[in-house]
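Hello, quick one for you while I still have it in my head. A protein chain has come my way and I'm curious about its shape. I'm sending you its amino acid sequence along with the backbone structure tokens. I'd be grateful if you could look everything over and explain what you see. Here's the protein in full, and shout if anything looks odd to you:
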Amino acid sequence: MPYQDVPGLRADHRGPVLELTLDRAQRRNAVDDVILDAMIAHLAAAGIDESVRVIRIQADGPDFCAGSDLVANNAKSARKPRVGSTQRRLPNKANRLIPLMLETQVPIIAVVRGWAAGLGFHIALAADFCVTADDARFWEPFMARGFTPDSGAAWLLPRLIGMVRTRQLLMLGEEISGSTAAQWGIVHSAHPPAELDTAAAQLEGTLAKAPTVALGLTKWLLQSGNGLDLDRHLHNEAMALELSSRSEDFKEGLAAFREKRDAEFQGR
């Protein structure tokens, strides 16, 4: 499938990996509607593209993402927007991106340097794995701007770190470093900046060689299980097991076990 660049976002499909690179360093990679629409389209396409086994979201420049570009997004009309414009707009923009990241069965890695604020923070949260520089800065800017959290912040954070620390971030507006984010369990790992690309590449390689069907269904089980009772979750586990056990990778895994060798999964 073609993955087209748009102003502020580069898309590069290399073998099993789709790289999405934020490219607005002059705006600290703040996300406008053009970028949001492209990210949503690329993630939706990658979710059904059998050649994509990993999605990597990263950024050029010193910062990962300063959040939504409120200036650009609100400068399209000289007229004052009608009441309810934010409520109408969000379901098709940031509030569509975050659920899509959680629901797609392709594993997603976020690679964070510098600032990850607001929506940038939430993209890191919604990724399956976030590797960050230890001196990166994670910040929820909402109280400092006088409005309430968006793009799933108050849903994602408590599930990762509990209510006490969530209040520190959302209600007190405390900034935390990449090292602290790793200690709190917000991100997968934190590294010295010079070692970040190596750590991300190793994780990317591991996921790209994994049994893709089983990996995607496991992601689905983890996400869907949040709102289910045990009986329904076990029903989903049985269905996932039925599907994954019919995959070519399952057959390869059994053969490798019998032959006492490492499995070579093809993602099928």
Summary: The mean pLDDT is 91.
